[in-house]
Amino acid sequence: MFAATDSNSRALAARPQDMRSFQAVSVNLQGRLMLENFDEFDCIVVDMSPGDATFSCAGRPETGERIVAYVDHIGRIEGVVRQIIAGGFILAIQASERKREKLATQLTWIANKHELGLPEDRRHDRLTPRSTRTEMTLEDGSRYSCRLMDLSLSGAAVDVEFRPPLGTPVRLGNMRGRVVRHFLEGVAIEFLSLQSRETLREFL
């Protein structure tokens, strides 16, 4: 369980006990998910708890199907479709106790950020790269020239023609990460660990 400010109390609504054992926060988080058949779809998480999440998505999975998703401000989550609803589905999140605690912390921050006047993500400030040309390297050694579009301590967006599947391990310069999202110009990469400005010095 986790707390929120009084003004956000209406955003925390417990589902019936047979539906979820955690409280849910009303959110509007964009993401990308992959079905068991490897089809990928853009999605929006409309409410979420450390136990499950409600997705709005054009993809139509079956009950019991395993889903992997990458959600803005949350990161990677996975689980099994618990229920199909109009315009989407409810995902029962499969995670360790430590991961659920992290989700609770993230959701508390999301629920309270407007009350506290926080920016969209104070934790990972956007940095202005001076050098935008770099290479994206796959585990098999394949290299792809790319242009750095956006950079933060936790990830980067690159303009590149080749789009590896979601979850693909990659290296950007000397930083290791994985592909978490596709967009029109290229891919978004989430670093495996939070970087320092010193680590990013080759771009700054």
Features of this protein?
mainly beta; Thrombin, subunit H; 2 domains; 6-stranded antiparallel beta barrel; 6-stranded antiparallel β-barrel; 14 strands; 46% strand; disordered N terminus
Q: Can you put this structure into words, describing what you see?
A:
- 10% of the residues lie in helices and 46% in strands.
- The protein has 204 residues and is mainly beta.
- It folds into two domains: 111 residues, Thrombin, subunit H; 66 residues.
- The strands form two sheets. Strands 2-3-4-7-6-5 form a six-stranded antiparallel beta barrel. A six-stranded antiparallel barrel has the order 9-10-11-14-13-12.
- The longest helix has 20 residues.
- The N terminus is likely disordered.
Mean pLDDT: 79
Count the DSSP helices.
Answer: 1
CATH architecture of the largest domain: Beta Barrel
Question: In the CATH hierarchy, what is the class of the largest domain?
Answer: Mainly Beta
Give the uncertain stretches in residue-range form: 1-21, 114-123
- Following the backbone from N to C, one meets helices and strands in this order, namely EEEEEEEHEEEEEEE
Biggest sheet strand order reads: 2-3-4-7-6-5
Specify the overall morphology.
globular
Radius of gyration: 18 Å
Predict the CATH topology of the largest domain: Thrombin, subunit H
Q: Per DSSP, what share of the residues sits in E-state strands of 2 or more residues?
A: over 45%
CATH level-4 homologous superfamily of the largest domain: predicted glycosyltransferase like domains
Integer count of domains: 2
Largest sheet report: 6 strands, antiparallel, barrel
Helicity range: under 10%
Number of strands: 14
